[in-house]
């Protein structure tokens, strides 16, 4: 219920590492509320919100949307939800994102999942996806990979040092990968 302290999982990994795919399985099995930061930003573009055109330009370049924008969207969804278990997918993407979340939400994640996937595999998956995303082209994918390595890996390392990181080998069949994810949530059964 809304009165409970939130239980927060951050889901990290490069573009196409399978974050969204595994989040759907975690939702089905453990009853989390899935908040994909990328989906929330794409929704702002689709509904022509004030910040929509800036968000679109940023996503096309594979860059990171300002923290205030993203954290505001995540906070709104957390407040509207009557679930208290959250899967925050694709966020934080930088140390600046992380610090802004901790300041504005006033909480740290309980668990951080990291889907570790070789670049060639990520590129292959994203190019095969075919869902019309403006950033699923080879030029933008190269930029997304550079930004991931430069800005997201420091966040991964931060949580590794804090003992919160669960590194998952993201190569193989979706169900096999989920068998590595499942034990991380032992005790979170609905
Ligand atoms: N697939 C999945 N698992 C597979 C497997 N085991 N074997 C073979 N294929 C597999 O998967 C990608 C594709 O691979 C799918 O077709 C799937 O069927 C297949 P998916 O689960 O969608 O991977 P995911 O990691 O979610 O990939 P996504 O492209 O969504 O990751 P990104 O991190 O690049 O995208 P996101 O939507 O999070 O962000 C997009 C952009 O938004 C960012 O580049 C950035 O510009 C902006 N953004 C911000 O600025 N701030 C934020 O906080 C978040 C986003
Ligand atoms: Mg995704």
Give a written overview of the molecule.
There is one protein chain. With 190 residues, the protein is an alpha/beta fold. The chain has a single domain, classed as Rossmann fold, CATH 3.40.50.300. It is built from eight helices and five strands, in the order E-H-E-H-H-H-E-H-E-H-H-E-H. It has helices at residues 19-30, 37-46, 52-60, 67-80, 95-105, 119-129, 138-161, 174-181; strands at residues 7-13, 33-36, 85-89, 111-116, 165-169. Strands 2-3-1-4-5 form a five-stranded parallel beta sheet, sandwiched between helices. Helix 4 crosses helix 5 (95-105). Residues 19-20, 36, 38, 90 line the site of magnesium ion (MG).
Helix and strand layout, with pairings?
Blueprint: E1 7-13, H1 19-30, E2 33-36, H2 37-46, H3 52-60, H4 67-80, E3 85-89, H5 95-105, E4 111-116, H6 119-129, H7 138-161, E5 165-169, H8 174-181
Parallel strand pairs: 1-3, 1-4, 2-3, 4-5
Helix pairs in contact: 1-8, 2-3, 4-5, 6-7
The protein binds P1-(adenosine-5'-P5-(uridine-5')pentaphosphate and magnesium ion (MG).
The site of P1-(adenosine-5'-P5-(uridine-5')pentaphosphate (UP5) has 28 residues, from helix 1, helix 2, helix 3, helix 6 and helix 8.
